[in-house]
């Protein structure tokens, strides 16, 4: 290091916005499933923290956990497999914190983490607007056949047959899970588009009730609505929340939107529903088996997942590859919150964004 560089570092230590000097706040962190955008936003946020970050493209799972040896903190994303075997290897290698750079925590064995003394943090609310806006985008695109129309126009096919949509205004829509994201979606649909909004949650949001949102159990909701959008977390309780029976009980031609977690829907049942016409259209940003597909360029590969390939054959299905979170604002907020969690563990301070098995069992 040159004298100038050393000087710059010392000066920076005095002005770290998160307390402590650069050296005392520094903690070694291994980032898994790294993409260029993760690196860009984490490096930018780390100027305010000074952690020592190493990036790995590999997905974290039992077979790659050895890469994390000696790193007190490990940072993972939605499709890393942080099961008991992985956590055992991490704990053995000295890891004290697994920081999820996402809101969902279904891919981590929280009981095993607690047993092994590994704390788990997530980013509960980095930008609910990002996901809510994307959800509304999917609804509009699917409802008015915009992707199909664009494909036609690119081939100079300006025929309109098959592109008839329906007004959203006045339609009955169901929002399952009215937390941060679901509440924004419910508001946009109610106030922006004049939908009749039904909602289902363990706790009612009085702010939504005040604007005319009506709460109902999920089974009642499904029987009444033309469109259902899912915003609850994936837990053992919500796995396959939308299954064969519920789809059969829904209104014929129901539109199904999922930007939460793939396994909220039984995909085989969804395909059956699409084939029979019981399900009218589907937009998904998440998929049950997405870990083998999403976030990679597989355009030169033969996809082995026949269920996913079948989904792609329907003209009334729109799929994106888990990108609802992907905005500048969200990526900055994720990076800031993740590095703040690392700093808290380093300082022995309470972990603000901790997630525990007890919270999951409580369903929130
Ligand atoms: P949140 O915790 O603010 O809200 C979740 C809501 O679901 C809570 O109100 C909770 O009471 C409710 N809930 C729990 N169990 C339920 C059940 N059985 N039935 C009905 N409601 C239930 O979470 P937030 O921030 O709104 O995120 C929701 C989900 O969105 C996350 O769990 C995550 O899986 C997903 N997500 C997807 C992203 C993407 O890029 N596609 C990005 C961020 C989050």
Which ligands, by name, code or SMILES, are bound?
A: 1,4-dihydronicotinamide adenine dinucleotide
Mean pLDDT: 92
Largest sheet: 7 strands, parallel
Q: What fraction, in percent, of the residue positions are helical?
A: 25-40%
Structure, described:
The protein has 15 helices and twelve strands. The chain has helices spanning 3-14, 22-25, 36-46, 84-92, 110-116, 128-143, 146-154, 180-192, 206-210, 218-224, 244-249, 267-276, 306-312, 328-347, 357-361; strands at 28-31, 52-55, 73-76, 97-100, 119-121, 172-176, 196-200, 214-215, 227-230, 254-258, 279-284, 317-319. Helix 13 (306-312) links the parallel strand 11 (279-284) and strand 12 (317-319). The chain has two domains: 28-126 and 327-360, Rossmann fold (3-Layer(aba) Sandwich); 128-319, Rossmann fold (3-Layer(aba) Sandwich), CATH 3.40.50. Helix 4 packs parallel to helix 5 (110-116) and helix 6 (128-143) crosses helix 8 (180-192). Mean pLDDT is 92; it is low at 1-25. The chain is α/β, with parallel strands linked by helices and 364 residues long. Residues 103-104, 125, 128, 131, 176-182, 200-203, 231-234, 237-238, 259-261, 285-286, 322, 324-325, 363-364 line the site of 1,4-dihydronicotinamide adenine dinucleotide.
What characteristics describe this protein?
single chain; 364 residues; alpha/beta; Rossmann fold; 2 domains; 7-stranded parallel beta sheet; 5-stranded parallel beta sheet; 15 helices; globular; binds 1,4-dihydronicotinamide adenine dinucleotide
